[in-house]
Amino acid sequence: MFVKSDELTLHVDLQGSNDAPVLVLLHSLGTNLHLWDPIVSSLARNYRILRLDMRGHGLSEVGKASFLIEDLAKDVLSITDYFGIDVFSVAGVSIGGLIAQHLADSIPERLVSMVLIDTYLAPTTQSIWSTVADDIRNHGLSHRIQEIFSRWVTPEFRDTPPAIGMKQMLHRTSAEGYAGCAEALSQIKPARPKNKKVPVLVLVGENDIVATPAAAKEMAIARSGKLVVLRNAAHIPILEKSGEILEEMMQFLAENRNKTIREETGV
């Protein structure tokens, strides 16, 4: 479906029981909401799943103005408000994890828990992201696709149908959508978490050279979260390690869902 968020129309998918707790899934730079396809049906058995394509990704508009991580977080809140969702858990991959962290720092009272996958507290290469944004605006995205994709999955996985499908998501991402997000990444300033009340699970591929295991460990410590390293996985492991990720997420989400219920009922 399509939902208006301020001046933009965003592509949204909502599935699961209306009575179930809500889980918002945020995809990575250069992909779209279908990144979560391998595990979304399993998650939807226990949760109401809300997915959306980021600006300029999938079927969502990109808009005319530049934007920041704060604006991408506002898009998420606009969609949750549209559906009358007051509290929710959130899981984000790469830039999706940065959006999730902004939500945790700005509206912790609305988050039940947070899963951060192959992301970091802030990019350590802001100047590089600015260069990437300029290059893509001037020359398009196609000449960078192989370089980008090579960091997403392990060499053993690259020629499989799921990996090729993920690569097609990148091909179909608008140049301005990718460049706009790259520019947003270049504007993020390193800062310590403002709030540690939201329970956090951190997952990271052991071979991730973008958001490294060391960066994941730093983030887990800063946010008082649990760290799990995924063996033989790279930067975007959702398809390659879907079974392990689903297991870790289901256990973590259930634990914190039960904790919330106990706190609310006193039982």
From TrEMBL:
GO terms for molecular function: 3-oxoadipate enol-lactonase activity; 4-carboxymuconolactone decarboxylase activity. Its EC number is 3.1.1.24, 4.1.1.44. The keyword Cell wall biogenesis/degradation does not apply. SUPFAM superfamilies: alpha/beta-Hydrolases. Keywords: Hydrolase, Lyase. The keyword Lyase applies. GO terms for cellular component: membrane. Residues 21-241 form the AB hydrolase-1 domain. InterPro entries: AB_hydrolase_1 (IPR000073), AB_hydrolase_fold (IPR029058), AB_hydrolase_sf (IPR050266). This is 3-oxoadipate enol-lactonase / 4-carboxymuconolactone decarboxylase. It comes from Xenorhabdus innexi.
